[in-house]
Amino acid sequence: MGALPVFRWHLAPDGYATSRQLRAHGLRPGGQGVAAQLERPRRRAPLIAYLYRVDLAKPVRPMTPAKWAALEKANTARRTCPRCRQDAGYVIPASLGMCVPCADAPALAA
Predict the structure, then answer these.
(1) Which of 10, 35, 45, 56 is buried deepest, with most CB atoms within 10 A?
(2) Mean pLDDT across the chain
């Protein structure tokens, strides 16, 4: 296997895109390997972005009703406080592990 072509930042030729750029156009790499890489020089190790060929990219798979339901269930679980069992209306911070009113309750009682 040969080495990957390396391009400087902002100088990649047409026909290559990062995974985020592909996603913005409704595409995905689709199992293809990395075709090239971009390097942005800096004092420490260079920043590297992997590039994929646009002509080999495939369309993004559509969300099925089952996937939408699973996503809604997961988001509801992230918003539900394990202590008071109520929907907080926001994602519970991992640092607290519970909603803000429940986390502040011991401080208010003291």
Answers:
(1) 35
(2) 91
